[in-house]
């Protein structure tokens, strides 16, 4: 038997923070690829510390629903899961290349395949592009359009910026959008000055966050000048400095994120059959029908992204 654990941050303050985790888990559960699928959180129940002990499967694939390699993925999650002999060097990563490490949870006799975070997987590039398509309701979006991938950024962890820059570079290499730029909240270049970095009339802004919360629904919209007060909402697109800003909300709410979780598990050796194809078809159908599960970009705010 094989099990999948999706490990996410969660929030004590924002009840919606865990919604993407449950949504993607439900999607994967419906494919039947795993005998068991569990959600686990740092700030909510069920907690990281207990989740493996609730599983019957002997082989467990743990996929962190986080954007970057860093404190949570390298220290908190392995510690709370009680993974024997864990060391970040087992990932042999440069900050964006973590794949998986196979470890033992000896107290319960289970083999744990601990995967890198979803945010650094190559498949995330497709999710960002899909997010832009969803925002502009155009499957061919690109020509005449600029794309900004926005991250938190921090001087405390250089890997925080690496994931954003990595996917921005990959998208730029495709020559689909006229301009592609990585911007940040807490380091240069800053998202506050988004219009300074683009000549395109239309700019799609995709925050590389897992869930919508106060960063994506309060800070970034106000910082970009979409609204003076997030509580009043904003237009999509919004007119700012002679440009039209198409702000999408957190990329982690995109239906295609379930595919990235599956890719991480498959890279670690999980037998997922045709689950990826099923998830991609569901995501494409939802986008085509206009029933994408992601929230409206100006639908409110809270902590937890």
From TrEMBL:
Domain of life from the UniProt record: Archaea
GO biological process: cobalamin biosynthetic process
Region: Disordered, residue numbers: 283-305
Keyword terms of this UniProt record: Cobalamin biosynthesis, Cobalt, Lyase, Metal-binding
InterPro entries associated with the record: CbiX-like, Sirohydro_Cobaltochel/CbiX
UniProt-listed Pfam families: CbiX
A GO MF label: lyase activity
Cross-referenced CDD domains: CbiX_SirB_N
PANTHER family the record matches: SIROHYDROCHLORIN FERROCHELATASE, CHLOROPLASTIC
NCBIfam families per UniProt: PRK02395.1-1 (NF002670), PRK02395.1-3 (NF002671)
Official protein name in the record: Sirohydrochlorin cobaltochelatase
Native source species: Natrinema altunense (strain JCM 12890 / CGMCC 1.3731 / AJ2)
